[in-house]
Structures are given as C-alpha cells and as structure tokens.
Amino acid sequence: MGLEDKLPSGIVLTSVEKLAGYMRKNSLWPATFGLACCAIEMMAAGAGRYDLARFGMEVFRASPRQADLMIVAGRVTNKMAPVLRQIYDQMAAPKWVIAMGACASSGGMFNNYAVVQGVDHVVPVDIYLPGCPPRPEMLMDAILKLHDSIFDEKLGPNRERVIKEVELAAMNAKPTHELKGLLA
Amino acid sequence: MVHNESGMFGASGTGDTSGYGGLVRQAENPGSAQRPYGGYFDQVADDLERAYPDFADAIEKVVVDRGELTLHIKRERLVDVANILRDKLKFEMCMGVSGVHYPTDTNRELHAVYPLLSITNNQRVRLEVSVPDTDPHIPSLVEVWAGNNWHERETFDMFGIIFDGHPGLTRILMPDDWQGHPQRKDYDLGGIAVEYKGATIPAPSERRSYK
Amino acid sequence: MIVPGLAFGIISIVLGALTGPARYNRAKLEAYECGIEPSPQAAEGGRFPVKYFLTAMLFIIFDIEIVFLYPWAVTFDALGLFGLVEMAIFIATVFVAYAYVWRRGGLEWD
C-alpha cells in the first residue's frame, strides 16, 4: 500500500509524478465548507455562469471522506475551529486547502476575540485567496493555480527533498516586518 | 443617569485639532414620563393597571421617548407582568431579550430589555429589568414566550445575566468553556497585532485610546 | 457486458488501495458527525437502545402488508367485490396490531 511513496527516483518516477499529478488535478472534488459570505461566491462559482463543472468540480461532497479539496469560505470562529480541524482530519490524503477570502486567510476585518486570525492556525493551507468576497473568477483563478501546483507535486524521495528545502527556506527567511514593502 | 460619550478617535495630547479627540458629550438616559403619555400608551398603561392591581408596586418607571413606551419592571414581578401582558393585553410576540451593560450605574449595571409586539392591536411596548452586577439573576420568561429560550442563552453568554428557571442555560455563541462575557463594556476586544512588511500594527483596542 | 463492468470496479479499488498514500489519522476511523466528536457508540455487548429494533420490526410488518396490497391493486377489477371484502378484513386484522402498538407506546421515539 502506498506504492507511490516507495518508487525509486529517476525517469520512471518523473513520468509517474506527471501522470499522478495530471490525474489528481482533474476533477478535484471540493468539500462544502462555506461558512459566511464567501460561501455565496463559492455557490456562484459553482452555478451556471461561472461554471465549476468545467473542471469536474460541481460535486461539492458533503462527506469529507469523498472530498479532496477543502475550500474554507468564510470566517472561522473559535467555536468552529475544532470542527474545521476534525473535517480536515477526516478527509483522505491527498488533500488540499484553499483559504478563500480575507477572513479565512488572515481573520479579515475581524481582529477580535471570536474569529480565528487566519485558518492556517488550524489547517495547512495551499492557496490563500484574498478578497471580500473574492469574485467567482478569482476563485477559479485560485483553483487553476492549485491545479498547476498539484501537477508539479513530487512523489517519493523527490517529495521529501522538496519538503526539506521548503522547511529550510522558511526557517532562514526574514520575518515579515523586516521585509520592504512596495512603499518603502 | 448621565454618562459620557466621547469620539472614537480619542487621541488626547497630540495637538489634534479636528475635534474628534476632544469631543465629549454628556448623554442622559430619558427620565420618567408623566401622564398623558400620548398615542396608545395611555390605553396600554390603563389596561395594565386594571388587569394587574399591583401595578404601582411593580413598575419602577415609565419612559416615553422618541415615540416608544418602555416600562421598567422590578425583577420579582416580571413573570406576573409578562403573563398579564400576554394573556389580557394580547402582546403575543416577544422579540427576544437584549442585554445592556451600564458599568457606571452602581447596583443597576445589567439591564435586560424585552420588546413586545401585539399583533392584534398593532402595539409595541418594551419591558426593561435592571439587576446589579453582584446578583445578576432574572426570572426566565421561557414559560411565557417559548421563543425566548435561545435569546436568554445569548444574553447569558454575552452579559452574564443568569435566568432562573431556564430549561438549559448554557453558552450559545462562544465555546462552552469560555471565560468572561464578551459584550460587557469592560471586556477587551481581543485581537492580535498585525504584521505588515516594515511595520507591526497593534490590535484595534490598543491603537487609539477608545474611551 | 458484465465482465468489463466488474473488472473496472475491481481494478479501480485495487489500484487505488495499492498506489494511494497511507497517512494515518485517528479522526479518519471515527464516525462522521459533521465535525464534532461523535457520540459514544454501544461498546462491548453491542447494547443498542431498543427503539431502533422496534422501529425496524414495525417497518417490516407494515411493509409486508403493503407488499400484499400491491398485487390486489393491480388485479382490482378481476377480483371484484370478493377481493375488496377480503382485503378489508386483512387490513382490519393488521389494524388491530397497529392500534395495539400505538396504545402501548411503541411509536414514541423518546
């Protein structure tokens, strides 16, 4: 079980990676996690005009066991955070998370006792999508970027190497308040 | 009861001449109204007096302000008055309970406000009960208007008013083990400092002096 | 026709199990209850509340009754008055059982 983690690196692995990436990114099934206003835009993205069915994603699975993508659309309160984590845990790997909207990415305009300041305090996030709410086209752009990153995901020993590199880069990176913004 | 209302951007001692910093208003809660109240309020008050002989004992004051009638009731008489209002005066609907916190009003810090609506007579009246912070108990009105169940839970969660006789008084909006009552005036807004490129902005409640 | 169908089903399950990543998480083994901790299930002995059994039994009985009603409804004309009277007697008999269950509180869920 879990053959993909055990393949030796080389041409075979690269081809398998491409194949697995291609198959995984087409028809990602989202799990319903629409919490607030962003959920309306997510519904609009799934509806007729901005069609998510063109990616095979119109099936929003209510059960996390059948879903591979969790679009956290809306503000997550402190009361909802354990529920969010439980749903994420019950999804089967491989799974990805899009933090849709300002509230899911960083707490949005709600910097208070009730709202979790960014859903990445609770689950690991792959794509942060700003907006209040983001238009359906922006959500589709985020999904397309996620498709590209899924296609480029590595397997086996390549994956472990990438994870190590990313971790090293994050540890050596300058903290945000030491970076120079556009107005500096 | 007089309290000070000051502008939100109360940055004092900064040379801020916009007027926002120094804007302090004395706001007063409206006092007792005298008869005649005007409109249908007299009829409601007369009917209540006729149906409830202990009327003068139960009512602390009657306030008529901006076209709305508010009856301040003592908490011991609340259930009786509510029953009379529902059965005899036909105030079938209660819009829920709202809590108010006046931290400067010693011994009457927490108020619970019940807006009532009579659909048959098209009349609105408001009941207000005041309790001290040291003894925040109010009898529950769930037997009178069953829809008050969750509203009373919310008022308990946000203000700490304990409703005696409620079938299940637990927190409803905050997590079950939360400490504190968030909508009180002395409860901090919470929130964290936000890190931007080049600066860290403190949490909203620390940014300017919100008086 | 049935062979490729069966083959497709079996192959996708087997292939998925072989190649998929295996990441253990305790929450995956628990029942899905919309994200909250699932309410404790019946432990050793499998002691379920009896109301589930009652509901299942009552369903079986009245479902069988309905099954008997279907062929009568289909051949209603041919059976005529005799069929109607006999069916009425049958329904009355099952109705006694229904009244008994109702009076004895079998239809109360809690």
Any descriptors?
heterotrimer, A: 184 residues, alpha/beta, Rossmann fold, 6 helices, 4 strands, 40% helix, globular, B: 211 residues, alpha+beta, Beta Polymerase, domain 2, 2 domains, 6-stranded mixed beta sheet, two-stranded antiparallel sheet, 5 helices, 12 strands, 28% strand
Give a structural overview:
The complex is a heterotrimer of chains A (184), B (211) and C (110). With 184 residues, chain A is α/β, with parallel strands linked by helices. Chain A has a domain of 125 residues: 3-Layer(aba) Sandwich (Rossmann fold). Chain A has 6 helices and 4 strands, in the order αβαβαβαβαα. Chain A has a 4-stranded parallel beta sheet with strand order 1-2-3-4. In chain A, helix 1 packs antiparallel against helix 5 and helix 2 packs across helix 5. The longest helix of chain A has 17 residues. Chain B has 211 residues and is an alpha+beta fold. Chain B folds into 2 domains: 30 residues, no CATH class; 150 residues, 2-Layer Sandwich (Beta Polymerase, domain 2). Chain B is built from 5 helices and 12 strands. In chain B, the strands form 4 sheets. In chain B, strands 3, 4, 5, 6, 7 and 8 form a 6-stranded mixed beta sheet that branches. In chain B, strands 1-2 form a two-stranded antiparallel ribbon. In chain B, helix 4 links the parallel strand 9 and strand 10. The two termini of chain B are 18 Å apart. The mean pLDDT of chain B is 86. With 110 residues, chain C is mostly helical. In chain C, helix 3 runs antiparallel to helix 4. Helix content of chain C is 68%, strand content 0%. The interface between A and B is medium-sized, with 17 and 20 residues.
Question: How many strand units of chain A?
Answer: 4
| Secondary structure: helix percent of chain A | 40-55%
Please give the radius of gyration of chain B in angstroms: 21 Å
**Shape verdict of chain A:** globular
Q: CATH homologous superfamily of the largest domain in chain B - what is it? A: NADH:ubiquinone oxidoreductase Nqo5 subunit
User: So, CATH architecture of the domain at 28-152 in chain A?
Assistant: 3-Layer(aba) Sandwich
Task: Indicate the overall shape of chain B.
Answer: globular
CATH topology of the domain at 28-152 in chain A: Rossmann fold
The largest sheet of chain A has its strands arranged as: 1-2-3-4
